[in-house]
Design brief:
- This protein has about 725 residues and is of the alpha+beta class.
- The chain has 21 helices and 23 strands.
- The strands form five sheets. A six-stranded antiparallel beta sheet has the order 8-7-6-11-10-9. It has a five-stranded antiparallel beta sheet with strand order 2-1-5-4-3, sandwiched between helices. A five-stranded antiparallel beta sheet has the order 13-12-16-15-14, sandwiched between helices.
- α17 runs antiparallel to α18.
- The longest helix is centred in the first third of the chain and has 55 residues.
- It is rod-shaped, with a radius of gyration of 70 Å.
- It starts with a helix and ends in an 8-residue tail after the last strand.
Length: about 725
């Protein structure tokens, strides 16, 4: 009752002035008029009734409606009216001037006291009712504001919210996120299946279960298809949601609150991530690669099983940073750590790529290829690395193969260098491929890269056409391995002979698609072969000449007896043999003059080298001059052994030679400390042989001076016979 009265504006205390005060006066006058009329009526019917009896309800009502001020006004005016009534008869002023009785005064006093009490109690009651009304209104306003704020909050929250009621799940409320989820449809006031006919039966069953059992339901990533745009098929969305039952005052579930979040993008991203991780796992597994991650803030290392296997770490147990550092080879550790630090530096952010040796906990040395990348985060404008991810791959087999290949290449290079060979290849894509050895053959810097056109430019005129005339028919016959010899002109202009051995390859159509082989400079061999040919011809020629010389020597030789003739012939033929031996040792390119003199004289020196002195610069004698000088020196030595300086132990022979400015070679024979020499009276066979040995085709000259102290002989050969070398 008080709450209902509190809602009436009259029970709210009006202002001291203005319309509220006038309202109070009007109420008081109205109540007094009603009370006065009732009092007159009652006094008319019952003259003995006190004139103040009917004023108390007026005071109570006035106080309750308009406050104690209005109640006091009614009390005063009512008292005045009642007192007037006491001084007169109940009819209005019929006995004007009649004095009031003491009973009238008592009635007035009791009236005033009772009215005051009524005013106090009524004012207290009025104020209590007003306070309750204000509190109720305040709470009502607060609830309405809270509901408005909640509705505003629900309207703009990121998650979707809706409130449905009744067995048909009529939408009482749906926020903006929910409307966006269902394509912008306004579902307020519509049953669920009418507003969303595509709503899955499985979720309707969940709503029925929540409504029937009163238990909330939490769903994770439920697939729901909504037609978000007209004339387009429904779009699948994934929702995380909560179904919360709401009970009425009787405890019965009459409404269900739906709350959730559209996690479609997250689910699709997670699905894509899982597919990507699956592909990565397949790729890394197929490639034998391991994946690792270093979470820098927590210093936690995450290794895949493949990465643990590569490093020799036990499966099923965690890996820490110290374990990773411990497996690095001591010689590789500093370089690997510096690469990682460069990748973690925000100023550099370099990707770490390297091949390092590791030593597993089992003591096995391996090679791994490590690739890493730091991931950065920015806080308050400062970037720092928070993760380091990478891959590991065991490349021990490859490194072993590379080492073996390098060893084989070194061996091949040594063999190539020792044999003067160069390896080459004509590749279908890369063209002419070669190494520094081929550049050395052609007189080029080691780092020169030649092309096919460059190679064709080295051939001597006509050689390329000759090679093609050989190789093309051979390839057409099915021959693949070939050996060719041809001339080239090097970069320095020198002409060289080249031998190439190679094998050609054919494509599916039978056409050449490349070749590989070795190349060698065979100029020395070619020159040697040419010299051998010339030497063979020279030997034939010299043999004929030698036979002619022997024949002439036999014809000219004389002696008193056959035995003496045998010795003379044997000595002269031996001299020719020694000259022939020297020429043979020099491959008939020339005989050394000193060797020739030593061979002839030391045989007559009786083993005492001091009896002979030889002096002169090295001179290479042509074959004809060597044979003639051998005969001349033999005759001089034989004559000295028989009659001259070599016939006595004290004798001495000095042989020297020199050239003059015109290149004339003069060989000087000087005997001393031998028997007294007298000039011969006639020219014997030996003297004739000396005179004839250097003449003729050699254009030489022999001069003999028979001095008493010993023979002096000069053998002269011109420069064209014995050229300077």
């Amino acid at each position: 009752m008080l709450k209902k009265l509190g809602r009436i504006e009259l029970f709210r205390r009006p202002d001291a002035a203005g319309p509220g005060r006038l309202l109070q006066v009007g109420v008081a006058v109205t109540l007094l008029a009603v009370a006065g009329l009732l009092q007159v009526l009652v006094d008319k019917l019952s003259p003995g009734v006190t004139p103040f009896a009917l004023l108390f309800p007026a005071v109570l009502v006035a106080t309750l409606i308009a406050g104690w001020e209005c109640g006091a006004m009614v009390t005063g005016l009512g008292g005045l009216f009642g007192w007037t009534m006491a001084m007169h008869h109940p009819l209005i002023f019929p006995r004007l001037g009649t004095p009031a009785t003491p009973a009238d005064a008592v009635d007035l006093g009791l009236y005033l006291v009772s009215a005051a009490a009524i005013i106090v109690l009524a004012e207290a009651q009025r104020r209590s009712a007003g306070s309750l009304a204000k509190e109720s209104a305040r709470r009502l306003d607060a609830r309405e504001r809270m509901l408005a704020e909640q509705r505003e909050l629900f309207e703009h929250t990121r998650g979707f919210m809706a409130l449905v009621s009744g067995p048909d799940y009529v939408f009482e409320f749906a926020n903006e996120s929910y409307r966006r989820l269902v394509g912008g449809r306004n579902v307020d006031g519509l049953p669920l299946m009418q507003a969303l006919p595509e709503f899955p039966d499985s979720l309707v069953a969940l709503l029925d279960d929540v409504r029937a059992n009163g238990r909330p339901h939490v769903g994770k990533a439920v697939s729901v298809a909504f037609q978000r745009k007209r004339r387009e098929p429904p779009e699948e969305r994934f929702l995380d949601f909560v179904l919360q039952p709401i009970r009425d005052p009787d405890g019965k579930v009459d409404r269900v609150f739906l709350e959730g979040v559209d996690v479609t993008d997250a689910v699709r991203s997670q699905t894509a991530l899982m597919e990507s991780e699956a592909r990565l796992w397949l790729a890394t597994t197929a490639a034998g690669m391991g994946v690792f991650e270093w979470r820098i803030k927590t210093n936690k290392m995450i290794f895949s099983d493949q990465a643990k296997t590569i490093c020799g770490f036990p499966l099923g147990k965690p890996v820490n940073h110290e374990m990773m550092l411990s497996v690095l080879h001591p010689e590789e550790r500093e370089a690997a750590v510096m690469q990682v630090y460069s990748a973690l530096d925000p100023a550099q952010r370099q990707s770490a790529h390297g091949e390092h040796r590791i030593i597993t906990p089992q003591g096995e040395e391996r090679w791994v290829a490590a690739n890493g990348q730091a991931l950065f985060e920015e806080i308050d404008g400062i970037a720092s690395a928070n993760r380091y991810v990478g891959t590991l791959q065991d490349i021990t087999a490859r490194k072993t193969a590379e080492a073996e290949m390098a060893t084989a290449m070194r061996r091949l290079r040594l063999v190539s260098e020792a044999g003067g060979m160069a390896v080459w290849q004509v590749h279908p894509k890369h063209g002419f491929v070669h190494g520094p050895e081929l550049n050395a053959i052609f007189g080029l810097p080691p780092d020169t890269q030649l092309t096919d056109d460059d190679m064709r430019g080295f051939y001597m005129p006509g050689e390329l056409d000759r090679i093609r005339s050989i190789t093309y028919p051979a390839f057409a016959r099915g021959e693949r391995k070939m050996e060719l010899e041809y001339r080239v002109r090097r970069a320095d202009g020198a002409v060289r002979w080249i031998m190439t051995r190679g094998e050609m390859a054919a494509n599916a159509e039978g056409l050449p698609r490349g070749s590989i082989g070795v190349m060698m400079d065979i100029t020395d061999r070619k020159d040697s072969e040419e010299r051998m040919k010339l030497l063979a011809r020279e030997v034939d020629h010299r043999a004929n000449n030698l036979l002619a010389v022997v024949q002439g020597t036999i014809q000219l030789s004389q002696a008193p007896s056959p035995e003496a003739l045998r010795k003379v012939l044997s000595g002269r033929i031996s001299a020719l043999g020694r000259a022939h031996q020297l020429l043979s040792e020099a491959r008939w390119e020339g005989a050394d003059l000193r060797r020739l003199v030593e061979e002839e004289l030391l045989a007559f020196s009786l083993g005492a080298a001091s009896r002979v002195s030889i002096r002169g610069k090295p001179v290479a004698l042509p074959p004809a001059a060597a044979q003639a000088l051998a005969m001349s020196l033999h005759e001089l030595a034989t004559n000295a052994a028989k009659y001259g300086a070599l016939s006595t132990p004290q004798g001495h022979v000095a042989v020297s030679w020199a050239r003059d400015a015109q290149g004339l070679l003069t060989i000087r024979w000087v005997e001393s400390k031998g028997p007294l020499v007298t000039p011969p009276t006639r020219r014997g066979l030996g003297t004739n042989m000396l005179a004839r040995a250097l003449s003729g085709a050699l254009k030489g000259e022999t001069r003999m001076d028979w001095r008493p102290t010993g023979l002096i002989c000069e053998l002269k050969l011109p420069a064209e016979t014995v050229p300077q070398t």
